[in-house]
Amino acid sequence: GAGVSQSPSNKVTEKGKDVELRCDPISGHTALYWYRQSLGQGLEFLIYFQGNSAPDKSGLPSDRFSAERTGGSVSTLTIQRTQQEDSAVYLCASSPGQGVNGELFFGEGSRLTVL
Amino acid sequence: GDSVTQMEGPVTLSEEAFLTINCTYTATGYPSLFWYVQYPGEGLQLLLKATKADDKGSNKGFEATYRKETTSFHLEKGSVQVSDSAVYFCALAELAGSYQLTFGKGTKLSVIP
Fold it and tell me: Do the Cβ atoms of B98 and A100 come within 8 Å?
């Protein structure tokens, strides 16, 4: 597509349920990033993919969070046993290469609300 | 660790007013600096960047100068328009080729006619 596409745009779930958030990056972009934006906070880095591999998973807040990327394209962020503190906007971005001295292209985000 | 501090919002200005959004950073190395903007209902997009001291990034009438001596990268615009209403994020990347951006908390700007 023309830009980074994320789905769902809004998700309301009950505490304890699992959720999956999807990101479809710009075609040809090898790098993919997940960030989390909580109310009143900046963007928190979660994970980075170069191709299908994730060199750095240290930003994931807990072992309830996991992410994968297949075919060097679509990525899924999974949150298991959701908690209320997981409520946030989850942003995905992609870029053509490895470094951020270029430009990151962001999707509109998936807003997660955990009741 | 690295951090970015930007002025608290929200900021409300009248059309054609002068805008400054302050941004200071802490980094162990020699980072690249960025301003991203998020218009209502849209994803973040790069507004401007600077990669070395005294560089000036500019775009759409906005400017920011990389000041190493004051570790600052303040965003300015001489005459704002209603269409500039958005959330502005200052960010840094520590190393050349680094994959991780460290963002400030964002400053919401509202411009009224």
Answer: yes
